[in-house]
């Protein structure tokens, strides 16, 4: 029995090594991985400090918590609507990249948009500020918050069609976020608008990847989809609506609504300001938060490769429940500990929680 068990484990390790080697020879894997890497670089460089930028009186806009909450609420509503629209459109496009190229173009313009449109309107106050919040919610959601699900869905679709592991490709997104998060705090202390401009540069790189890098197998598949005599592979509108009749879908929606949604509010809106307040100066807090965030996302990137193995062992349902448990521990322990070291350790729980929610769902 022991010999058989050892042999099976050795075979599993050999299979994992073989899959990793073959992935590097797969042009679609390389293209998808680099594309999602650039997306998370473009997003992470400013998103990791977006809450600090809104509320920091020294380096940011100095908004109140109520004003910050209003922006996050409107952004979330816009993200929800645009996300559904993106899903319906991309289902009809199949593997075509028209929509992701459009989103990449928005990401490439985030720097000038924030400096010359968004920030001036937010600081103007009154009706101008509210209009700025609405415009910002559309632009930022279209380019990033809703765009995230679009890029992940397209990468997952490519993984099934062109033979590579989605988790391995998605891990490059976390790796990209980790790299830029390491620099984000230091750039923020110099000038927070630099974060948005670096996001534009990364967005331009992403635009080039999706506009010009088309592997041979993808070209062949695009020709097949363009053939008017080919059997339809994309779902019809009626088929998409019929999915809403599935009880398990609504169970998953309710589960995500009451777990990951509230957790995101805690992690993005509340935690950065709380963490920075634990240090003698906000500058030290910002730099430390950026470094910690980078380390956490590096771990998250590694966990993207581990979680698929866990899913195979315990199943999708139990993986989601495990993710919820880690989430509750993260929030609860932040209320128990009040020193930077302990809170930093608890923050690292995020690197386990994200893959446990992202991959099974």
TrEMBL record:
PANTHER family named in the record: 3-PHENYLPROPIONIC ACID TRANSPORTER-RELATED, BLL5896 PROTEIN
Xref: InterPro entries: LacY/RafB_perm_fam (IPR000576), MFS_trans_sf (IPR036259)
Molecular function via GO: lactose binding; lactose:proton symporter activity
Region Disordered: start-end pairs: 1-21
Keyword GTP-binding set for record: no
Membrane topology: Multi-pass membrane protein
Location in or out of the cell: Cell inner membrane
Primary location class: membrane
Protein name: Galactoside permease
Key words, A-Z: Cell inner membrane, Cell membrane, Membrane, Transmembrane, Transmembrane helix, Transport
Record has Cell inner membrane as a keyword: yes
Cellular component GO terms, alphabetical: plasma membrane
Membrane-spanning intervals of the chain: 29-49, 69-87, 99-118, 130-151, 171-190, 196-214, 248-266
């Amino acid at each position: 029995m022991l010999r058989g068990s050892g042999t099976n484990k050795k075979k599993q390790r050999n299979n994992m090594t073989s899959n990793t080697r073959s992935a590097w020879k797969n042009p679609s894997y390389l293209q998808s991985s680099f594309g999602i890497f650039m997306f998370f670089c473009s997003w992470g460089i400013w998103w990791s400090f977006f809450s600090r930028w809104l509320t920091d009186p020294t380096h940011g806009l100095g908004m109140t918590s109520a004003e910050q909450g209003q922006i996050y609420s409107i952004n979330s509503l816009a993200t929800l609507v645009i996300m559904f629209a993106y899903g319906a459109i991309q289902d009809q496009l199949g593997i075509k990249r028209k929509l992701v190229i459009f989103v990449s173009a928005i990401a490439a313009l985030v720097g000038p948009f924030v400096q010359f449109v968004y920030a001036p309107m937010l600081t103007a106050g009154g009706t101008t500020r509210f209009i700025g919040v609405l415009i910002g919610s559309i632009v930022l959601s279209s380019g990033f918050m809703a765009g995230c699900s679009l890029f992940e869905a397209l990468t997952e679709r490519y993984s099934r069609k062109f033979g590579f592991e989605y988790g391995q490709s998605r891990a490059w997104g976390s790796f990209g976020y980790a790299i830029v998060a390491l620099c984000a705090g230091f750039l923020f202390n110099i000038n927070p608008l630099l974060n948005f401009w670096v996001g534009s540069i990364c967005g331009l790189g992403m635009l080039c990847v999706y506009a010009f890098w088309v592997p041979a197998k993808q070209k062949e598949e695009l020709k097949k989809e363009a053939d008017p005599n080919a059997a339809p592979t994309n779902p019809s509108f009626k088929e998409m609506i019929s999915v809403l009749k599935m009880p398990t879908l609504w169970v998953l929606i309710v589960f995500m609504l009451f777990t990951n949604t509230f957790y995101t509010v805690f992690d993005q809106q509340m935690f950065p300001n709380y963490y920075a307040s634990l240090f003698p100066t906000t500058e030290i807090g910002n730099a430390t938060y950026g470094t910690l965030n980078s380390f956490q996302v590096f771990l998250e990137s590694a966990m993207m490769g581990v979680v698929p193995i866990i899913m195979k062992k315990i199943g999708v349902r139990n993986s989601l429940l495990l993710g919820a448990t880690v989430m509750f521990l993260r929030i609860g322990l932040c209320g128990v500990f009040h020193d930077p070291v302990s809170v930093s350790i608890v923050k690292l729980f995020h690197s386990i929680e994200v893959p446990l929610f992202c991959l099974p769902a």
